[in-house]
Amino acid sequence: MTPACRPIARDELLAALRDLPPLPSVVLELITSLGHEELSASQFASKISRDQALAAKTLRLANSSFYGRGRQVRSVAEAITVLGLRTVRGVVTAAGIAGSFRCHPAFDHDTFWRHSIGSALCAQALAGELGRDDGDLAFTAGLLHDIGRLALASAFAPAYAEVEQWRRDQDCPGDVAERAVLGIDHAEVGGLMARQWNFAPVIVDAIRRHHAPPAVSEVTLTGIAHVADAIAHALGLAGDVDEAVPALLPPVWAACRLDDAGCMRVFACTEAQFETVCEALLH
Amino acid sequence: MTAPATPDAPPPVALTHLFRHSLRDGRVHPLLHIMQRYRQEAPK
């Protein structure tokens, strides 16, 4: 069986990515500030408060049953106190990006974001379990690892509908369907976008190589995105009937050195927060 | 493996469905057995 679409030419792809809507400035600022703690909580609160939609979602999460502390949170500054700066930064990033792309009926945005949020929470839990101090970077890498899918579905909607049909018909991984139909996959496209947005090189690499991380003995952020992607699918968080767990590269998995108890903690921590975060961000 | 007792826990068939690509290729995915134990041991 041969796909009906022609592969996307490189020039056409780059032009389409340049035409995508820019991310809200506050989101770009938050992502580029990852790893730098020069901004105080009050400066973050001031930036987030400038965007009503982002501020509203932050408050909704702070007042949710999971994170709520029994009193009404009325300001972003208070929300940062309740949730912590790192969680708020992740939430605002997710909400800002989710609100920046056009919706197309053929693309299931809810399923996409449920998997992205699940991967983000899992990557953060995994980083904590491994004793790392870059949980916020891991959250962002997990959240954005599939951003190329959103870009392709937004910029090439009819062609991407064919990708989804091909994936269902062949029951193959999404990146395989993308390369068969479009000649390029979401990891490569996501990497191009992340560079265009001036994301930190470790985030660019995590997005670009999350299906093929380097087989090194130490765990990298890219390796965490790779493992978190597989775990989020294995937990079935997307709620997609066609969901399937992608391959996990043995050297990358071995480098995590997770025993059964550690795995269980990562799974439980991810699931405990998942519905609350989805509820705050997606509805 | 025994069926989970709670309605919100996915039944075993869901896991074999989620891992169908590796099972089809004759590979045991590193997460399959851990996830089976997790679903059995999940808080009721």
Number of helices of chain A: 16
Helix/sheet category of chain B = mainly alpha
Number of domains of chain A: 2
- Main sheet overview of chain A: none
**Could you tell me the mean pLDDT of chain A?**
88
Secondary-structure element order of chain B, as H and E?
HHH
> How many strands, what sense, and barrel or not for the largest sheet of chain B?
none
Uncertain ranges of chain A: none
Considering DSSP H and I runs of 4 or more, what fraction of the residues of chain A is helical? 55-70%
- Globally, the shape of chain A reads globular
In terms of quaternary structure, the protein is heterodimer
Number of DSSP E strands of chain A: 0
> How many individual helices of chain B?
3
The CATH class of the largest domain in chain A: Mainly Alpha
Note poorly predicted spans of chain B: 1-13
Q: Which two protein chains have the largest interface (Cβ within 8 Å of the partner's Cβ), and how many residues from each?
A: A-B, 22 and 19 residues
CATH-derived topology of the largest domain in chain A:
Hypothetical protein af1432
Question: What does the secondary structure layout of this molecule look like, with pairings?
Answer:
The complex is a heterodimer of chains A (283) and B (44).
Chain A: H1 10-19, H2 25-32, H3 41-49, H4 52-62, H5 76-83, H6 85-98, H7 109-129, H8 135-144, H9 147-155, H10 157-170, H11 174-182, H12 186-196, H13 201-208, H14 221-234, H15 250-256, H16 260-282
Chain B: H1 12-18, H2 20-24, H3 32-41
Describe this protein's structure.
- By secondary structure, chain A is an all-alpha fold.
- Chain A folds into 2 domains: 10-21 and 103-282, Hypothetical protein af1432 (Orthogonal Bundle); 24-99, no CATH class.
- Helices cover 66% and strands 0% of the residues of chain A.
- Chain A is built from 16 helices and no strands.
- Chain A has helices spanning 10-19, 25-32, 41-49, 52-62, 76-83, 85-98, 109-129, 135-144, 147-155, 157-170, 174-182, 186-196, 201-208, 221-234, 250-256, 260-282.
- Chain B has 44 residues and is an all-alpha fold.
- The two termini of chain B are 16 Å apart.
